[in-house]
Amino acid sequence: MKISHYYCITSLLLLILFCFSEGWCADPTYGFTAVPLTEWNFELQKPYDVPLEERYSYENGVRKLWVYADDKPHDPNSLTQPRTEVRIRGLDYSSGVWQFEGYAFVPNGTSGVTVSQIHGAAQDATTLILRIYNGDMRYYSADLIATGMYDRWFRLNVIHDVDGGKVTVFIDGVQKFQVKDKGPGDLYFKCGVYAAPRNISYYMESRWRDIKIYKK
Ligand SMILES: *[C@@H]1O[C@H](CO)[C@@H](O)[C@H](O)[C@H]1NC(C)=O
Ligand SMILES: *[C@@H]1O[C@H](CO)[C@@H](O)[C@H](O)[C@H]1NC(C)=O
Question: Where does the signal peptide begin and end (predicted)?
């Protein structure tokens, strides 16, 4: 091999190394193991008085979930806001390191809505709420996580390190947000549409495909 080839290979390796060190090449699922899922793992919650097909469809691998601001809660005894959501069933966790992955699409006009959450915490009802407000993604109604979320597919990865007490959010493979969690509890992932307490659009929709759960 010529000297110039060594230079070439060395620069390539350095470039790859640099890419990883900068977090550009690192995949959030690296080092995790996918948990096998069946349709049973996808429990659906929707306004109690309407049939599922009026708020949910599943075609060509895409789950579409929608809800209206004046819909009923998921349970007649509940006072919560309307929702149509996938609740990951059978994979509740209370320790370890877990990850949710999904590709999501939120149409322009959908606002004031939680599109993904980690349900459960030591004290609160939730550990993480990811809401869309006017095309922005926020942590609850506060911290801005990402902008320009309408009318495009984006990849969402949420890592919950229960043992380390932290939650990390990635959009399109790039880390966008990290926050302390709220302690262990009966924890599980959800996605779909769940109306926020305020600033709600009348119609709310999100679409999801390739939902995966990983753990370490
Ligand atoms: C959303 O739709 C409104 C009304 O049609 C438009 O003014 C706005 O620019 C759109 N926003 C995005 C991010 O496409
Ligand atoms: C909710 O609406 C109020 C009043 O229109 C506004 O001041 C506030 O910024 C909105 N909050 C969010 C998170 O969009």
Answer: 1-25
**Is residue 64 scored above 90 in pLDDT?**
yes
CA distance 201 to 108: 10
Query: What's the pLDDT score for residue 12?
Result: 75
Q: What is the mean pLDDT of residues 34-61?
A: 98
Mutation choice for ligand 1 from 108, 133, 201, CB with most ligand atoms inside 8 A = 108
Domain boundaries, the chain: 1-27, 31-215
Map residue 200 onto helix, strand or coil. coil
pLDDT for res 200 = 98
What pLDDT does residue 6 have?
A: 72
C-beta of 113 in contact with ligand 2 (< 6 A) = no
Q: Which atom of ligand 2 is nearest to the CA of 138?
A: 13
Q: Could you tell me if 69 and 195 are in contact, meaning their C-beta atoms sit under 8 angstroms apart?
A: yes
Task: Name which CATH class applies to 31-215.
Answer: mainly beta
- For ligand 1, say whether the CB of 178 is within 6 Å of any of its atoms: no
Residue type, position 93, single letter:
Y
Ligand nearest to the CA of 112: 2
Quick check: CB of 141 below 6 Å from ligand 2? Answer: yes
